[in-house]
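Below is how a single chain appears once it has passed through the pipeline. First comes the sequence as given, then the structure the pipeline wrote out for it. We keep one example in the README because the format questions we get most often are answered faster by looking than by reading.
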Amino acid sequence: MSTLSVHGLTRRVDLFTLRLFLTVVEEGQIRRAAIRENIAASAATKRIQDLEEIAGVQLFERNPNGAVPSAAGEVLARHLRLLFENLEDMRRELGEFSEGVRGHVAVGTTGAVLIQYLAREIGEFSRSFPLVELELKQDANTNLLRAVVSGDVDVAVYIVSPEIDEEPLDSLPYRIDRLVALVPRGHRLGEQSDVAFADLIREPFIAMHPNTTLMSDVNRAARALGQAVQPKFTVNGAEEARSLVEAGLGVTIVPECMVPVEASTRYSVLQLAEPWATRSVRIGTRRGKAVTAAARALIRQLTEQPEAAASEGGRPVGDGSR
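Resulting structure:
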């Protein structure tokens, strides 16, 4: 048998033969593979034999029941699956150029990010790209990574936190999310422009749902002080927490963008003087996986918004970096 070379492989083997090889692997028998690929069994056998000759190794172990890939055959099959997956991605993307940007994009994010940023921008994207079907999946911040890696979502918009391992992601900066403290108007802490968390936690505290990234940050900060958060009230979101502060029932921490622009006469907004109060929101896709033209169009629109945190670094999504 001859020695395998990339040059010889690409010149002497056509894609149909490589597809036939994979079909034999899947069917475990040349005859069944030939039927599936609509080719005579004798012609299929000849193509497989020629492929083995070019490869210089035996690709199948023959037995009375059929053909089982050898160790070399398993290696070839693994690479061919990736090859045909990439060819399908290429076909789909080229088709999008001729047909206009279309397709389906599943976006995973948290409720807070959806309310604060994404709802308006996704609405603008849908008007600009009416042929793209968007699917929104809301989940806990820590679940978004698994959703991207498993393929349940194409794009995740997540808050960077110690619980998030970004290694499996290609990502780009999207927004800077700042946390602020709200205290009732006339409260002793309201006379200053910022407040330390150690001072705030001594007051009756209005907490939000414990599964949120915000409360994870708050609980972590409390543990660092040797304390535990013991909320006076627990509510579902920032609007409810703000209402209780307005009623003078305690203090809270909320994302700055969730505070209405118009000044309230019933509470004061203080900067939270803690490093963890400045949080990065990023857009992530599965590392090394090329994204579709539709997903690229969405990511481009999100990152080109005037408020986007373009000053941050990151590995560009969909560039195939590893």
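The chain has three domains: 6-95, 99-176+281-303, 177-278.

See the next section for the split statistics.
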